[in-house]
Amino acid sequence: MTVMQTAAGTRPNATRTDLCSAGPPRPPRPDGQDRYTISEVAALTGLSAHTLRWYERIGLMSHIDRSHTGQRRYTNADLDWLDLVGKLRLTGMPVADMVRYAELVRAGESTYGQRRALLESTRGDVLRRITELRDTLAVLDLKIDFYGDLERVRDQEVT
Fold first, then answer.
1. Which of 22, 25, 105, 143 is least enclosed by beta carbons within 10 angstroms?
2. Residues 68 and 135 in one domain
3. Residues 42 and 103 in one domain
4. Nearest residue to 25 (alpha-carbon basis) of 48, 9, 8, 44
């Protein structure tokens, strides 16, 4: 099983094997292509070339192959990893934790428990944030209703 896969049944109602395919569809990749330049990856992911180089420098990306001229050559597996990193960023996971996760992945199967613990902690953070956002949304809805009621009363007084 690869980094990007999970066995069905490890979570309730889990049927997918590639969790990174969940959510919004990825931009289409050229059929049959498995080597991309940094500018192609930037276009496919929305990340800047500077960010991609920084990810490599801090250890968030594993070693990226190079062409005979020294240009970075990304693979589809690298794009899948960047999809996961993007999702981790959306969770609010600190960069240091993302780098730690990447290190654990590179360390191999013996780190499954540590990876799971890190992801469970992040999941808890996400659930707390969702609760905060729902509470914030409820306050906004109350204020919107309040102003809507005021406008209706004002409109009735005018007529």
1. 25
2. no
3. yes
4. 44
Q: Which residue, among 75, 44, 46, 45, has the nearest Cα to 62 in the 3D structure?
A: 75
Q: Is residue 63 part of a domain?
A: yes
Tell me the pTM: 0.73
Note whether 74 and 38 are within 8 A (CB): yes
CA distance 19 to 12: 14
Helix axes 95-107, 112-158, angle to 10 degrees: 150
Mean pLDDT by 10 residues, the chain (159 residues): 43 45 56 85 95 96 92 94 96 97 96 98 97 98 96 88
What contacts 152, CB < 8 A, 6 or more positions away? none
Pull the structure tokens for residue 156.
């009735």
By the 10 Å C-beta count (0-12 exposed, 13-18 middle, 19+ buried), 81 is classed as: buried
For residue 77, which amino acid is it?
A: A
> Quick one: pLDDT at residue 25?
55
Q: What pLDDT shows up at residue 141?
A: 97
131, 94: one domain: no
Nearest to 54 by CA among 27, 85, 77: 85
Residue whose structure tokens are 């990174």: 20
Residue with tokens 């794009």: 79
Q: How confident is the model at residue 34, as a pLDDT?
A: 83
